[in-house]
Amino acid sequence: IANELLQTEKAYVARLNLLDKVFYAKLIEEARKDTFTMDVVKNIFSNISSIHTFHSQFLLPDLEKRMGEWTSTPRIGDILQKLTPFLKMYAEYVRNFDHAMDLLKQWTDRSPPFKAIILEIQSQEACGSLSLQHHMLEPVQRVPRYEMLLKDYLKKLPQDHIDRRDAEKSLEIIAMAATHSNTAIRKTENLKKLLEIYEMLGEEEDIVNPSNELIKEGHILKLAARNTSAMDRYLFLFNNMLLYCVPKFSLVGQKFTVRTRIGIEGMKVMETYNEDYPHTFQVSGKERTLELQARYRPEHLLEVLAFIMHAVYHSKNETFKSAFKDVEEVTDLKISELGKRAPRWIRDNEVTMCMKCKESFNAITRRRHHCRACGYVVCWKCSDYKATLEYEGNKMNKVCKDCFCILTGHIDSEEREGKKKGILEVSSGSCDLSIMCGFLQYCEKNKPWQKVWCVIPQKEALVLYLYGAPQDVKAQSTIPLLGYLVEDSPRPTDPPVSFRLSQSKSVHSFAAESEELKQRWLKVIHMAVTGEVPKPDGVCDLSAL
């Protein structure tokens, strides 16, 4: 332990020399040219020269001499007592540390010569690929290091050892000084982590600020806006923002590029349903809306959601309720937010028809387009409008007819007349507003089997709606369930996990992916055919989070 004290002291003195004789000296030399003031440099480095002088000229030589005489004089307590009168120097350095970090950032941004000197020194081998801020953390952390080594030393020291009294007295004084530094150390540990992230992000993101606190970081899967492909992404969640990043190839350590910075203020989080990718959720901020997938297991989704909600809950400007609430439409934004915050894009494969005019899409004459204001998938005719969007810096961009009317105040003749909805023009809506919803294979009479999105809405609990895709705004057909006969046993020609609804000459065949899912559907349908309103089944209760 005594030898470890010596070796760490040598490394510490080398770090002090780098701060005092290299960084400080070079910046003072440049300040004499009136490039920037000397006071700035002195206020950044505080009393680092005094700390360096004491350790390099007194404490380290005494430790080296004592370790050379260890066989005859096995003690270090008396030497460490020499440190105690100089602990006041550390108190001054720690008190100035936050101010030093602010000044360092301010002048690095303001003065190119100042920044150039720091970058040039940081590129040297002696810096070990670490920033000036990293090196300046060392004096703050050194006193607690002495305390830890002394505690270990005393544990091994016999009760009647000649060094016990001096070592205990040294520990008492050093521990008192370390206690005064604890708050600063906690701040510096957080700052150290911020600096590590700052370097991972290519030193391009302004995150090194004592008010920023890292809550959670880790890999996540991002679901593409237009299709269902999942891409590896990385999140840094702070107390005031979420950084959505793309991993970069790097031979040395992890590196990332920031794609989006989303402020915690006004953020909303909700679980979403995706057939191909389970455990998905949506993060919606003013700047952008993301649909993400937790990796590995359902518990990971709960963990990620809990951390994000923790950040939102503790944000000064938002409450828990505004961060995590049920909404009637996943993609709907409040009219007051339209154009001010990025929408979640409905995926191409979630609709089979234009979400405005209800015309079916095809690959030639009616292709899919996205409204940049609400995120709906619309045809070219319904997206042939442009309006300024605040979240994109007031740039003109493509929007649907409805959003154009809201954003510009223009109402066309068709809207004035008021178009009546057809009986099938009912949106598939959100799973939160349904008694039961999900994909089933469907066959009517002798037609081929097809995959359909089935919904029994809470408002019409005795009607089964069949859609081409989850976000379609018009049903392909409906089945009024009252009075239908439910047949559970599959026919020889049917898929194994199937059931039928029959009434007179009308027969509708369905097949589920699993027996468990089939039984859930049958439980709800058995009640509906008798006129009894079923209770919601399979709706996620997010309040438990």
From TrEMBL:
Ranges of residues in domain PH: 213-313, 433-530
A Pfam family reported for this protein in Swiss-Prot or TrEMBL: RhoGEF
PROSITE patterns hit by this protein: DH_2, PH_DOMAIN, ZF_FYVE
Domain of life: Eukaryota
SMART domains (alphabetical): FYVE (SM00064), PH (SM00233), RhoGEF (SM00325)
Keyword Zinc included in the entry's annotation: yes
Family matches, as CDD domains: FYVE_FGD1_2_4, PH2_FGD1-4, RhoGEF
Domain DH: 1-184
GO cellular component annotations of the record: cell projection; cytoplasm; cytoskeleton
Entry keyword annotation includes Ion transport: no
GO terms of biological process kind: cytoskeleton organization; filopodium assembly
Record protein name field: FYVE, RhoGEF and PH domain-containing protein 4-like
